[in-house]
Amino acid sequence: MARYAVNKLVQELFREPGLLERFRGNRTEVYDAYGLDPSERAALDEGTPPALASVGVHPILQMHYLLACNPDVAKLITVNAYRDELQARDAER
Amino acid sequence: MGQLVAVGACSHILMSPQGVEQRAQRIVHGIREVGRRLLARKPDLVVVVTTDHMFNVNLSLQAPFAVGVADAYVPFGDMDIPREPRPGHRGFAEAFVAHAARRGFDLAKAEELRPDHGVALPMMFIDPARAVPIVPLLVNINMEPVPSPARCHALGGVLRETIDRHRPGPERVAVLATGGLSHWLNIPRHGEVSEAFDRNVLSHFERGQPESLTRLTPAQIVEQGGNGGLEICNWLLAAGAAPGWKGEVIYYEPMPEWFTGMGGLELRAA
């Protein structure tokens, strides 16, 4: 059974100002603040979907975590490639 | 009485077009075409029926349905979507919530909603001028128990009653459902797309019989279309507002490279 704590940490990464930066700078401090147990810390350190699933991270929040920790994922899931087209359309109006 | 003037549906994600340029272009054109048809009917507002991806409605408070009642919305900014404000329509949203309460739906109200890509991405293409007010209506497919397809469809009927009975005569309302089609996200079969499921869903809308899909349980939808496939509940809700209307599919692309089936349609009165 998943504990809420690990999901709470992940769902707040993009919502709590400064948390993502703190997480990137000192994970242990954030783990301590959220009271994560050793298995949850290991799962977040591994950071793969199977590891995240093993401690009950919600599938959508797994996606948040991958976006937060993996720039290659974030580069794929973005509208930036379509911005030129939108701007060209704006110019037509 | 107000008037339901247009109903459309489209997928709500885009990923890198690299390697899939032509199909990505067809999807973008498809979303635009859905929007062109909606806005051609000169709506005074668009009800956007979608799913929040746990940027607003997460595990801290799990509401089955939530309605944005704010005067304006600034996107959350996921997927690098610009945080440009879009007007809301408080009067319609409040009337809908009030009527729904009379009809057995106690809807959560949101003043501080910051729409994620479920609302913001399609609206970027549909109304880039951000001129038409929106009313976000969030269906929470990320909680247990998931609102049933039948319940979503029934709420669409209540939405229609609101328009018909509780809104001023000149008001013209469009409904846009977003999300889907099949995708399995971070569950077993992650990354699969089921073209069979997608085409079956689209076919039901084309025949004007989407209510048949309400017989599916959420578990059956997950089995056939993945956990992301539950977003067809958003489409079923929109269809509930337009009984008898038939769908014209505007685009469909199975996109295994994007881990999802992508489609869009317009519903038209028979």
Query: Which value, in Å, is the CA radius of gyration of chain A?
Result: 16 Å
**Envelope shape of chain A:** elongated
Strand content of chain B: 15-25%
Q: What Rg of chain B, in angstroms, do the CA atoms define? A: 17 Å
**Biggest pleated-sheet summary of chain A:** none
Mean pLDDT of chain A: 92
Determine the N-to-C terminus distance of chain A.
54 Å
Give the overall shape of chain B, derived from the CA principal axes. Answer: globular
Low-pLDDT segments, ≥5 res of chain B? none
Largest interface: A-B, 30 and 29 residues
How many helices of chain A?
8
Characterize the quaternary organization of these chains.
heterodimer
Query: How far is it from the N-terminal to the C-terminal residue of chain B, by CA?
Result: 21 Å
Number of helices of chain B: 7
Calculate the mean pLDDT score of chain B and round it: 97
Secondary-structure element pattern of chain A, one letter each? HHHHHHHH
Q: Going across the major beta sheet of chain B, what is the strand order? A: 6-3-7-2-8-1-10-9
Determine the fraction of residues in helical runs of chain A and give it as a percent range.
Answer: over 70%
Helices and strands of chain B: which structural class?
Answer: alpha/beta
DSSP E strands of chain A, number? 0
Please tally the β strands of chain B and state the result.
Answer: 10
Written description of the protein model:
The complex is a heterodimer of chains A (93) and B (270). Helix content of chain A is 71%, strand content 0%. With 93 residues, chain A is an all-alpha fold. In chain A, helix 2 (19-25) crosses helix 3 (27-34). The radius of gyration of chain A is 16 Å and the shape is elongated. Chain B has 270 residues and is α/β, with parallel strands linked by helices. Chain B is built from seven helices and ten strands. Chain B has helices spanning 21-40, 90-102, 117-126, 149-166, 195-206, 218-225, 232-240; strands spanning 3-10, 45-50, 65-68, 72-73, 86-87, 108-110, 134-139, 172-178, 246-255, 260-268. An eight-stranded mixed β-sheet of chain B has the order 6-3-7-2-8-1-10-9. In chain B, strand 9 and strand 10 form a beta hairpin. In chain B, helix 1 crosses helix 3 (117-126). Chain A binds chain B through residues 4, 7-8, 11, 14-15, 49, 52-53, 58-64, 67, 75-82, 85-86, 89-90, 93, and chain B through 13-18, 28, 53-55, 58-60, 76, 78-81, 121, 124-125, 128-129, 142, 185-187, 190, 227.
